[in-house]
Each structure stands twice: as C-alpha cells, then as structure tokens.
Amino acid sequence: HLHPPQSLKYYEDFAFRPDDIIIATYPKSGTTWMQEIVPLIVSGGDPASVETLPNWNRVPWLEVYNARNLNLEERPSPRVFATHFHYNMMPPGFFEVKPRVIYVMRNPKDVFTSSFHYYGITSFLVKPGSQSEFLHKFLDGKVMFGSWFDHVKSWLNAEDKQHIMYICYEEMIMDLKDSVARIAQFLEKPLDAEVVEKIADRCLFKNMKQNNMSNYSMVSCEFIDQTKSEFLRKGIAGDWKNQLTVAEVDHSTVQ
C-alpha cells in the first residue's frame, strides 16, 4: 500500500523544477540521514528546518502514497525530495529538467543487515524469514526496489553526471563535517565553517536519534514496531561483521 497506482501516476507526471534537489538511494543506505542534512544546508543551519515537520513530509518520497496530498506544487524553491527509484525508472520530467541529485551509496552487506532488521519491525513489508533466507532474497533482488547491484549500477551509469553528486555512507561516517561542506558546495549554498560544524553536530547519529521528527517515533507501532528494533538502530559502518556468518559473507561476496 506504500506505492498505489495513483501515487506512481502522480510521480510519472510530476513537474520538476531545475532547482529541485533529489536525494536518491537504495533503501537503508542513508536516506534519513540525508533528509536531515540537506534541509539544514538549504536553510543555512536553521534547526526549525528539521524540527517542525516529520522527515517524510519535510523531504517526501515522490513515489509514496502521501506525496500527492502535500501540495508540493506550492512549495517554495528549492524543494527537496527523496526517491528509491532506479535511474532508468525516473519519470520523463526528471530527464527534461535535470534537477540536482545526491546519490548515496552504502556497503551492500550493511544495507542487507539494516534491511533485515527493518523488514522485521514493519507490518507493511513481507516478513524476512531467517537471516539466511532473507540474504538469498536480497541477493536475488526479490525485495522492495529490487537488486542493490542494479540500483547502484543504474545511477553510476547515469547520463548528465554533472548534476549528480555521488557520496558514500562510509565517507559521511569518517568525516561528516567534510561531507556537509561538499554537499553545500554541490548545492551552491556557501556556508561558513561554524555553520558547517553546527550542521554536522546536529546530524551526528546520537543527536538525530533524539529528534522525534526524524526517529519515526511518531509512527504507530501498528506499522513500525520499534519495541523489536529501533528504526535508527546503530548508524555505523561495518555492522554486518556482527551479523553475517562466514558462509553468508562468502556467498554475498561471490555475488
């Protein structure tokens, strides 16, 4: 029910603007993090930009059912959106207008680990089964938004790369300040060092977890049961080492 036909039609016909900003990701690759960072950059570090609206309304997914109820046509520029679509699935208006895109990539083993926990706490996704079963589904692309490999490949092979910024989750973990500064530069939003530092601090995982507009605590446990596992779980690189067996690591590496 996340992506009914009416929502996909809305996205297909969506009127993009050249100064729109699209955060494109494969699920569980750092979308929520970027939904915090980009509004703060665009607003020059104003905390209200991430404290007044839940992140799914602040930076809505254009393919999700609630997007068409948000009067996005009336939002002032620059508008910030998210999408989990593969590059070749993007609607015609996207290719005509060429808005800016920030594409976030993450180690697929960590994407798998995060996805496994996420599928286990949501009521609207197929139950993951055992870790081993879910790994086979994940590697075969039998999960929401298909194959991680196809998704990343589609965006890395995009045309008109000058309007796309590629960034890795792991880079952001290593040096968030530098990542914020580079994103600001890409968005042509010059920020002084003090504001960059303030944004980076605000977007540290431990601080984001405290923001009720970003930690999904406002979502009914009927849909996301955070008593089983938190939505914002660890926010680290390399957690797959705590989760995957040697055989599973070997299997995923061969893929």
TrEMBL record:
<dbReference type="GO" id="GO:0008146">
    <property type="term" value="F:sulfotransferase activity"/>
</dbReference>
<keyword id="KW-0808">Transferase</keyword>
<dbReference type="GO" id="GO:0005737">
    <property type="term" value="C:cytoplasm"/>
</dbReference>
<dbReference type="InterPro" id="IPR000863">
    <property type="entry name" value="Sulfotransferase_dom"/>
</dbReference>
<dbReference type="GO" id="GO:0006805">
    <property type="term" value="P:xenobiotic metabolic process"/>
</dbReference>
<dbReference type="GO" id="GO:0006584">
    <property type="term" value="P:catecholamine metabolic process"/>
</dbReference>
<feature type="domain" description="Sulfotransferase">
    <location>
        <begin position="18"/>
        <end position="248"/>
    </location>
</feature>
<comment type="similarity">
    <text>Belongs to the sulfotransferase 1 family.</text>
</comment>
<protein>
    <recommendedName>
        <fullName>Sulfotransferase</fullName>
        <ecNumber>2.8.2.-</ecNumber>
    </recommendedName>
</protein>
<keyword id="KW-0963">Cytoplasm</keyword>
<dbReference type="Pfam" id="PF00685">
    <property type="entry name" value="Sulfotransfer_1"/>
</dbReference>
<keyword id="KW-0128">Catecholamine metabolism</keyword>
<dbReference type="InterPro" id="IPR027417">
    <property type="entry name" value="P-loop_NTPase"/>
</dbReference>
